[in-house]
Specification:
CATH superfamily: Decaprenyl diphosphate synthase-like
CATH topology: Undecaprenyl pyrophosphate synthetase
Bound molecules: farnesyl diphosphate
Strand order of the largest sheet: 3-4-2-1-5-6
Helix content: 40-55%
Shape: globular
Radius of gyration: 19 Å
Number of helices: 8
Number of strands: 6
CATH architecture: 3-Layer(aba) Sandwich
CATH class: Alpha Beta
Amino acid sequence: MAEPDSNSPQSVPRHIAIIMDGNGRWAKANGYPRHQGHRAGVKSTRAVVEAAAERGIKALTLFAFSSENWSRPSDEVSSLMSLFFEVLQREVDALHENRIQVRFVGARDELSSRLQKRLQAAEELTADNDGMQLVLAVAYGGRWDIVQATRKLAERVEAGQLSAGDIDEHRLAAELSLAGMPAPDLLIRTGGERRISNFLLWDMAYSELYFTDRLWPDFNADDLDLALEFFAGRERRFGQTGDQVANRAEVTAGD
Ligand code: FPP
């Protein structure tokens, strides 16, 4: 994962991460069972993927299923897994035609082998696409990610390839699931909660956080534009002072 480039103030985020929350409440409010809320959420997902690609976003990471979601009632977990399988089958060709590159992050070995195969097939089909990167976080947790990265480094230390003193932020970041991608510039969370909920804990150190009460099935391209407007109005300091940032912007403008 690349560090944020503090020399290039930008008004459009390169990478957006989204916590798609509120499907269950949307279903309840509309008198449907919860799984209908998830189905309605798929429509928003499609609309937002399309809108993000149109607006030139380079990467979009969606929190589809968290490490903690396994503790939901088993019928909800299995209906979500079936939905992911079905959606992948149905949407992958359209994603490919739009040159979108699909990737999955999360504990794949916790998923059924048929879903793992489908995820891998989608990744392989779209691997060489040069359009937006779409990352689906499934069975993902930010703590899980840091632990799996740490374990990889520990294995290299055990194998004598690395000494403990060599471990730094750069080496740890290189083992995280989003290694090689720019860090998310903007996090959007729908559904009214103002939490990060174990999403990309390391990667979001400097992300701008945008919370909206809109439930995910109601979230559309106009809502995405509101989030983009919010982002464009933020001053990103990356630990510097406001004056330093203003001077930097002048220098950049004069370049
Ligand atoms: C949160 O709603 C949403 C999820 C658990 C993720 C599922 C997301 C989808 C089905 C959207 C489609 C995604 C893909 C990748 C096809 P919630 O159940 O937590 O809502 P609640 O907080 O109102 O109960």
